Every structure is written in structure tokens, then in C-alpha cells.
Input
Amino acid sequence: MNASLNPGQLARTLAVEFAARAYAHDRDASFPFDNFAELQQAGLLALAAPRHLGGQGATLAQLGEVIGAVGYGCPATALVLVMQYIQHRSMGQTSKAGRTWPPHLAERLVRESVSSVSLINALRVEPELGSPARGGLPSTTARWTPDGWRVSGHKLYSTGAPILRWYAVWVRTDEPAPRVGTLRVPAGLPGTRIVETWDHLGLRASGSHDVVFDDVLVDLDNAIDLREPQAWGGVDAGLQADMAVLLGALYTGIARAARDVDTGTPVSATDSGLLKSLLTNHAVQAVEAALSLAGNHGLSRHHPLQRHLRDVLCGRIHTPQDDSARIAAGRQILIS
Output
């Protein structure tokens, strides 16, 4: 791979090969192992990790560019990479309670992803609990013993399960007053099973299978953050921002791939007018959403968002305007 290329260019180059393999992986629901070998060789697996841990410390915008490019070629690969990036970014961020990843754990994971195909994802969703984002305690338990934590439980939608080297498992302790948090569990320990349940409509190659833990022994120092349940209250704004940007980039990549499927069939004036109206209004909504997140600062004359808003509004004025496009479409329906 050309080392002079920036991460976005590297990802776009790789995505050509990913796209060539995507149909077969989707058809067979097979996992795209080769894609991750190429991502690692290109230096893109540790792109999101902080520099002080051995990563590249890419900005969220740079990560979004990479995810969008990979998503253009193989959305399932991009989804697994999103989860890797989110976990790596969290290693350099302090949590709400003032705690963060223990440095020795974070450094080891980053070093591994630089030198080999090493990926991590959070395993949080359960049959009884659903998504923990909606509250409730996990059923997966971590029992303290002098030899280590004994983990038992069942996780759903474990994206990337066939390739993950590490699980960040959301657990509750079996203490009289249980604590809740994350244990870093190496994949493949005795008592761990991957149950191949993923047979989905979309993202079929993402390997989002179930993972079951049956009294799995985990080193005591692999506890990342265990707290009283009430200490986890509220939304983690940093995590939400990462998820919004990276998942948005993934699905935008899919939309670009769909847009670029051109059979050469001429488009009628009516259809092109409706398309212009739809895209223009979506662009306005996207800028308005960004402005609402920025708040009053975004309306300051020195802030670029106010300029972007003024500029994007001009799209509604260019021919054909919304009313003309819709009237033309209505007439065509009435006379057809």
C-alpha cells in the first residue's frame, strides 16, 4: 500500500477490492477476513487510538472519511471498523466518574492492532435486557474469586464475533450491592462459545452472532470500570458524538454506492426535479441539525456554520424549485 496516501485515500483504494468481494459475502453471510488483513496492513486498525498509546490519534472527521469510504465498498466491514474505532477512542477519554481505561490494558490492545489483526468490540445487548442504553442491569455476571473473575452470560448482536480478539463485556458483579461495568475478556477462553445466529436482512457479513460465557475465568486486572449502577446515569456525550458521526458516515457511504449504480437509463425531467428537491432539502436539514447542536455559537458571524446555512438555503431557490418539481410530478401522474 502506498504510504504517501492519507487514511481516506487508503480506504478508498481498499474499498475497490472490498466492493468486488461484498456480493459473495452478503450472499453467503460469510465474514470478510481478508478485508481486515488489508486494513491492518494499511495501518488503519489503530487509526483512532490516542498517540500516547501507540495509535495515530486521527480526528473524528478523518475517521468518518475512512468509514464512509469503507462503507461504500463493504458496509459490514465498515460496521466492525466503527466498533473498533469507538473502543479505541474511549481508551483516551475520561469517563463521567473520572475513570478511564487502565493504561497497561489500553497500550496492549493498541500495540496488538498495530502489529496484527486485533479487534475489539463492546458486548452489551442481552436476550432479557435488550440494549442497556434503555436502562436496567445486565444478566451477565462477574463473580470474584482469588484466581480471577468468573463470567457467565449470553450476549446478542456481537458484531465482528468471528474475528474479535477482545470483548469489552458489560457485566454486573454478584456482590450483595452489585456493581456494573466492563470486563475486557480475551476471545477464545475456555467456556466461551460463539453461536452463529446472525441471519439478517442487512449487514449479513458483519458476523453479529451471539457470544455465550459459561464460568469463563478472566484476570482480575481486566476490570475496566465497575461502579454502582446509579453512577452510570445520564448520556455520555462523547460516545454519542462518536456513534452519530461514524454510523452516519457508514450509511452515507452506502447511499453513495447506491447513487453510483447507473444503468444508463435516461432520467425524465420530472424525476430529476424531484431528486433535486429531495437532495436539497436533506442538505438543508443536515446543516440545520449541525447548527442546533452548536447552539447560539453557530449563529455568530465568525462561525462557519452560519455561512454553511446561508449557502445551503440557496439550493431551494435554484430551478426547479420545490413547488415546480411537485406540480410537474402531479401532472404527470394525472395524465398517465
Observations:
- The beta strands are 120-123, 141-145, 148-158, 166-173, 180-186, 192-195, 209-218, 223-227.
